[in-house]
Amino acid sequence: MTTGKYFIVTSPRSGSHYCAESLAQRLQILPLGECLHHMYPNDVYRFDNNILKVYWPRNLKDQTIRRSSNQEIKDRVYNLISTKNDWQGQAHITHLLPLGGSVLRDIVKNTNAILLYRENILDTILSWIIAYETEKWVNTEVQTPNNIVYKRDIHLDNIKFLIKCDTHLKNLKNKYKWHKIYKYEDFTGNPDIDFAEYPKREQINVWNLPVKSNTEKEKRNIVQNITQLLEDINV
């Protein structure tokens, strides 16, 4: 497909911000973030004369009463597909499911659709626990937190949800004709290596990119009661 629109379909803690922002910066196209997330008010993404502009809220927490509805998000998808300018967006599979299967099919058909997954589900779970406890979901520098504790009452239901998301996403690998399928474990953490196949345009708009940090072994050492976690999730 000849288009400058790139859409990443993924599940939580799979490296989507690293992949997405690296592509957007390398190609110098408009980054949209998690553009199908309900947390964004509908007027964050505006379409004037078929040109997309993004107006990020200063404080997202203040916007929760203006969350987008499923219908608004579905309309947004087709507005995005129809825009004249190039962009890069991403969505967790759970943000796509309520919109119906036809939406995902149309995204795959009309954009450079990328499926991104993490093979190691334990690594995904450990990454989520650390991010949840530190409240740092996207890191732009390597960090190694200490004394993270797995809390069954707080974490387990979310972990079960993560596992369901992971399974559903991996089931889509052979269902559609993806532009690319990336596995998180294959990323080196160097965008010039990981995305060398894409032409690097003059870097006019640049920002600090997310980093890939902490191996599974390191995360096992960070989460103190790892044995209890392993017993609960049977991995």
Helix and strand topology:
Elements: E1 5-10, H1 16-27, E2 30-34, E3 45-48, E4 51-54, H2 70-82, E5 87-92, H3 93-96, H4 101-110, E6 112-117, H5 121-134, H6 152-170, E7 180-183, H7 191-194, H8 216-222, H9 226-233
Parallel strand pairs: 1-5, 1-6, 2-5, 6-7
Antiparallel strand pairs: 3-4
Helix pairs in contact: 5-6, 5-8
For this entry, give a set of tags.
five-stranded parallel beta sheet; alpha/beta; Rossmann fold; 235 residues; 7 strands
Please provide a written account of the structure.
The protein is an alpha/beta fold and 235 residues long. The protein has a single domain, classed as 3-Layer(aba) Sandwich (Rossmann fold). It has nine helices and seven strands; from the N terminus they run βαβββαβααβααβααα. α5 (121-134) crosses α6 and α5 (121-134) packs across α8. The protein is globular. The termini are far apart.
